[in-house]
Amino acid sequence: MDKIKIIGGVALKGSVEVSGAKNSALPVLISSILGNSPSYFKKVPDLQDIKTTEAVLNHLGITTQAGSLENEIILDSSKTISFEAPYDLVRKMRASVLVLGPLVAKLGKAKVSLPGGCAIGARPINFHLTALEKLGAKITLENGYVFAECKRLQGNRVTFEFPSVGATENIMMAACLAKGETILENCAKEPEIKDLADSLRSMGAEIEGDGTETIRIQGKDQLAGAKHSIIGDRIEAGTFLAAALATQGKVEVKGLDPIHLEAVLTKFETAGAKITRAPKSITLEANGRSWGTDFQTLPFPGFPTDMQAQFMAAMCLADGSSVITETIFENRFLHVPELMRLGADLVIRSNAVHVRGKSELIGAPVMATDLRASASLVIGGLAARGETTVSRIYHLDRGYEKMEMKLKSLGAQIERVKE
Ligand code: EPU
Predict the structure, then answer these.
(1) Within 114-272, where are the H helices?
(2) Long-range CB contacts (< 8 A, 24+ apart) of 356-362?
(3) What are the pLDDT digits (tens) for 344-364?
(4) CA 120–ligand 1 middle distance (angstroms)
(5) Atom 11 (ligand 1): residue with closest C-alpha?
(6) In this structure, how many other beta carbons lie within 10 angstroms of the beta carbon of residue 54?
(7) Which residues pair with 4 in a beta bridge?
(8) Known catalytic residue: 118?
(9) Does ligand 1 come within 6 angstroms of the Cβ of 62?
(10) DSSP helix/strand/coil, 29
(11) Are 385 and 35 in contact (CB under 8 A)?
């Protein structure tokens, strides 16, 4: 197992290009199931979760092939595909459940393993199932699997109980092949939803309202393959900017739309950083030590839960206190005891963490527990005096492409070592 070794205390400086967004690429690749001809995707990040997605699609009989350029992929779902996503694959990556909607829409049946719990929360899929039932699917649960069956899905009005990202994506994909009109209400508005809708439109789907709470879809009898380039990863960008703040540096992130990260940029400004927004890039310049800043995670356009851990790492070194409240997941503070190993002063009270900023953190061996927690420990290590080792970094490899190489290019003393 690899680990990351960091000698901290170096202010990050320079410019870095973000990869394609993991959380766009996963549903977008999965949506190729709906097409009757090959799909071409650009800017697909080279990540463990993408490899798992490819394994799921291959299991369904969809062939995957690298394109002529780096980060391009061609998926061919034109041949008959299987309707089962087994436990062994789904348990590796929860987003595999996104095959459910497209499979039942295209084949009239799907058998998909229930993903089970996750380190950051229980993460049930009840909203996905209730919505599919509304479109006419018969759902049964047996032996840890969901069976969904329907001759042809029928458009309907569906109101989500909560603006779930995954449920919005799953049902939006399914509705593209349903008969008639589907109106989805209380939808997630994350940029990844719009990116998926753009890709589906390139297949011939008729979708309006993506990025707002109401999405209207006119179902089609069939769809062609997609041609789409994945948007830049706003969470990867925010992670580098948080590292710049924590190390009191100056970093430009390129290749994303700043509006996708606005809630986080505003908080960086409240914390004292200077933010420069350009059409496709953002620069953060720290103004000495930052100030303690309160925030709570919310669905988009609020502060993303996927940036909570990384921002907290920066606030551990701020002048003053911060109260950080997590409202999306019930157990997303696994990084807290590990940041405390670096000397951070943190107290968990229910769904909030009270942070008392310290003037320095001191390097220590720490352990990654999930993707964003790992990123926050890397930030802590970059800012801490002396050596930090982060073990179990397979979590990091699920969601950050070439992270240590990119950080090195910003001046970080960081290397990957074999354990
Ligand atoms: N929820 C339910 N029932 C459902 C669906 C969701 O109770 O049927 C609950 C969840 O348990 C959670 C909340 O609703 O408490 C929000 O979950 P959501 O469905 O929005 O999240 P998701 O689709 O499972 C995606 C991202 C996550 C990100 C969340 C929130 C992907 C592949 N994953 O998950 O990304 O945190 O949206 O923005 O898009 C990450 O990248 O580190 C990550 C965890």
Answers:
(1) 126-134, 165-175, 191-202, 234-246, 262-270
(2) 356/321, 357/289, 357/292, 357/315, 357/316, 357/317, 357/318, 357/319, 357/320, 357/321, 357/322, 358/316, 358/317, 359/289, 359/317, 360/317, 360/384, 360/385, 361/8, 361/316, 361/317, 361/385, 362/386
(3) 999 999 999 999 999 999 999
(4) 10
(5) 123
(6) 17
(7) 390, 416
(8) yes
(9) no
(10) helix
(11) no
Pocket perturbation via mutation, ligand 1, pick of 19, 164, 331, 376 by most ligand atoms within 8 A of CB: 164
Q: What is the pLDDT of residue 419?
A: 73
Q: What's the 405 CA to ligand 1 centre distance in angstroms?
A: 29
Q: Whose CA is nearest to atom 9 of ligand 1?
A: 123
Mean pLDDT by 10 residues, the chain (419 residues): 95 98 98 97 96 95 93 92 91 93 97 84 90 98 94 98 98 98 98 98 98 98 98 98 98 98 98 98 96 98 98 98 97 96 97 98 95 97 98 92 97 93
- pTM, entire model: 0.98
pLDDT tens digits along 175-222: 999 999 999 999 999 999 999 999 999 999 999 999 999 999 999 999
Strand pairing of 413-418 and 2-8?
Answer: antiparallel
> 284 is written with which tokens?
């953060």
Q: What is the pLDDT of residue 349?
A: 96
Residue from 23, 48, 296 to probe ligand 1 pocket by mutation (most atoms less than 8 Å from CB): 23
* Residue nearest to ligand 1 atom 14, measured at CA: 164
- Ligand 1 near 281 CB (within 6 A): no
pLDDT for 404: 95
Distance 402 CA to ligand 1 centre (A): 25
Q: Phi-psi bin for 350: left (phi > 0), alpha (psi -120 to 50), beta?
A: left
- So what's the pLDDT on residue 382? 98
- 3-state percent breakdown (helix, strand, coil) of the chain, nearest 5: 35, 30, 35
pLDDT value for 118? 77
- Ligand 1 centre to CA of 300 (Å) is 12
Pocket flag, ligand 1, residue 187 (CB < 6 Å) = no
- Hey, what amino acid is at 222? Q
